[in-house]
Request: fold
Amino acid sequence: MQATSYHHGNLREALIDRAAEVIGEKGVEGVSLRSLARDLGVSHAAPSRHFPTKADLLAAVVRKGYELMTQATMQAGAQAGDNPVLRLNLMVKCGIRWAVENRSYFMALMNPDVRHFADADLRAALSEYYAMLTEAAAGAQQAGLFDDMPTRAALLHGFAATTGAQMIFTDELIGETVGGVSDSLIDEIADMIVPLNG
Reply:
């Protein structure tokens, strides 16, 4: 991503987006405020007005990733109307697709080094995401899905399976090894994680 000029106020978002891309390509060690400034065509001092340290930037990257994933997942679930099992199913499908379509952000979310920079805002964003999933899982259980196990166990089972699918499909080497990803395959996996019939 190259840019030569910015309208007032959008450098912060450009820095976050470019940092996510770099993390997806090179890992956390590839991110520096100076290199981001060079990539975006601004002075080397410009990023520090928005992010005094690399840690501040990395926390913002992961926070935005969780916020984007939460928003997309909530919108997907809302399409289910009053059907709580369908709601959870659509949320799982969306979660996998979001990771595939937003690979750089997902890779940033999963990078263990980035998690070391978690701040209060990031923890709040993660808590919001987890609360949304907990509510959806509880609703599906009340409708009869996995009602023979504790809600937390059912939630973590689904969360682990979904995260595993996300990681497989966003890892180029593993994804290639297993034959790639398609919309139909995402649907099939999500239907196994959250069955719509029984």
